[in-house]
Amino acid sequence: MAFDYDLFVIGAGSGGVRASRIASGFGARVAVAEEFRVGGTCVIRGCVPKKLLVYASHFSEDFESAEGFGWTVGERTFDWKTLIANKDAEIDRLEGLYNQTLAGAGVETLRGRAVVTGPNSVRMGEKTYSAEKILIAVGGWPQMPDVPGIEHAITSNEALHLEDLPKRIVIVGGGYIAVEFAGIFKGMGADVVQLYRGEQILRGFDDDLRNRLAKEMRAKGIDLRVGCNVTAIEKTKAGVLLTLTDGTTLEADTVMYATGRTPNTKGLGLETAGVETASSGAIKVDAYSRTNVASVFAVGDVTDRVQLTPVAIKEGHAFALTEFNNTPVSTEHDAIPSAVFSQPPIGTVGLTEAEARDKFTAIEIYESDFRPMKHTLGGSAERAYTKLIVDTATGKVVGAHMIGLDAAEIIQGVGIAVKAGLTKTQFDATVAVHPSSAEEFVLMRNPRP
Asked: Catalytic pick from 152, 375, 401, 434?
């Protein structure tokens, strides 16, 4: 049977773009459909614009620190509209580069919503396309709870496009998106209250990092309340009025929910092709991103394996190598370095202490608590903390964690060592870069009692 395309990709985000480009490079006829903007969550409404806002929010502290280094900083003001306009211009530039990349690779980009109509067919509007293989890479979408008045709340999507900077904002959630936006808005001068129903923020991260971040956030003036949630939202002339689980109320200009993301499969027509999904909507796949339907595949957040952009890129690349270059490659999902651009930031790779205790008979913990050099003259009381987790039987470093200045940059190099299975002895044999915060990872000598 002759198909219109060898590969039809639904979703031009990180995973879909990588898979399209690599498959086309192997000679496949490829089309990618996108209903919004090319670049996906990361480039358009996720990590890229969010980190630009993180950079912007840091200046309030940097101006204060500058005086300790001899700089006289005069009157300063912040203009939210200028920041958002400049951010939007950068996102436009990046989207243009993505479009150029696809066109240069010979991939046809189709604008509009694509719906699966069978194992080898996709419909866009009134037109149906056939394809030997279909790749689903539509990512995830913010999840909103069933709370009366939830229609008055925003998500991270809208937070990136607010017309004005809110003077008072309540952020609901305890994950990385919630703590990042709490730091962003606080750094820009807003009064921030963060509510989380659990006992501590950043569930799934190492407990030492969770506890230290909560302490630092409170020290910076963020009103962080755990064991607390919203039961109702009421629209007012001034903004919103929230009723909390303890019976009290809270007024704010804006309430933002960051309570998780779900696979964006609703209305995609997967059931028409017989593709199996989990109760969450996530597409079930094997190690090679294959669904139960031989011609349909899925990568990235829509599979709910690991919701990270670099993971989606790895999965898309592995898919293209496997299916169009006869080189079977499965993406490994262990020892993945990740960062939280909180304030202070977090870098982590490998097992948490709790996970390591469950997996190994005996472990050793090495840690260092210190004040980064920049803060000694800058005047900030913010501290940094590094931690290594070692399997006693093999001596291998199975987890590395850091909170503090430059943690996100530092963890990338440490991640290579943990992924390679290096031992604590090999860490110790590495010469330190001095003076730096990164050197702590090779200077910790005595295990925690």
From this structure: 434
**Right CATH number for 338-442 from 3.30.390.30, 2.60.40.420, 3.10.450.50, 1.20.1740.10?**
3.30.390.30
**150-258: CATH number:** 3.50.50.60
Q: What does the pLDDT average to over 123-141?
A: 95
CATH number of 5-142+262-324: 3.50.50.60
* 110 beta partners: 33
Q: Give every CB contact of residue 35 below 8 A, 6+ residues apart in sequence.
A: 111, 112, 113, 114
- 333 catalytic? Reply is no
In order of 215, 332, 383, 406, the CA distances from 397 in angstroms are 27, 18, 24, 21
Residue 150: Cβ within 10 Å count: 14
Q: Which two tokens stand for residue 376?
A: 């000694």
Percent of the chain with pLDDT over 70: 100
Nearest CA-CA partner of 57 in 179, 144, 170: 179
Token pair 């912007």 is found at 56
Structure tokens at 391: 């399997």
What is the per-residue pLDDT for 59?
95
pTM of the full structure: 0.94
